[in-house]
Design goal:
Largest sheet: 6 strands, antiparallel
Number of strands: 14
Helix content: under 10%
Structural class: mainly beta
Strand content: over 45%
CATH class: Mainly Beta
CATH topology: Jelly Rolls
Length: about 130
């Protein structure tokens, strides 16, 4: 296996590996399921929607996205990019520096703060060897 996608979900109930999930933006913190240890690199991606089916992509007007990874599920680390201005997340294009991570990690999580202009989101960590 050369890579794997880990979608985020509610803490305590993340989606299975590779299974997409869409969440309401009022769910401030979402986490992945336990990640495979063979991967040493990761990228974080997020999309926002006006609907819960993910059919109407939108760009938020404001807010902050904070992706982090953890080797244990206790201590969380940001990428060098740090936080993402949610307004830079545009349908069909990437208008922000994509957060990347290196090293061992068992979990990924995303924290959303004050998202306006979007009601739902889908986020994932793309892991590679």
């Amino acid at each position: 296996m050369n890579n794997q996608i880990y979608f985020v979900g509610p803490e305590g109930d993340p989606p299975p590996v590779g299974q997409s999930a869409i969440h309401h933006v009022d769910r401030e913190v979402c986490i992945t399921t336990l990640m495979d240890h063979q991967f040493g690199k990761a990228q974080f991606f997020i999309e926002f929607f006006a609907d819960g089916e993910g059919q109407s992509p939108v760009s938020p007007t404001s807010g902050t996205v904070i992706p982090e990874m953890s080797p244990s599920g206790c201590s969380w680390f940001k990428s060098k990019v740090g936080t993402i201005d949610a307004a830079a997340v545009m349908p069909g294009s990437v208008e922000f520096d994509v957060p990347t991570f290196s090293g061992q990690a068992d979990f990924g999580r995303v924290t959303l703060r004050d998202i306006a202009g979007a009601d739902y989101f889908r986020a994932w960590f793309w892991r590679a060897a």
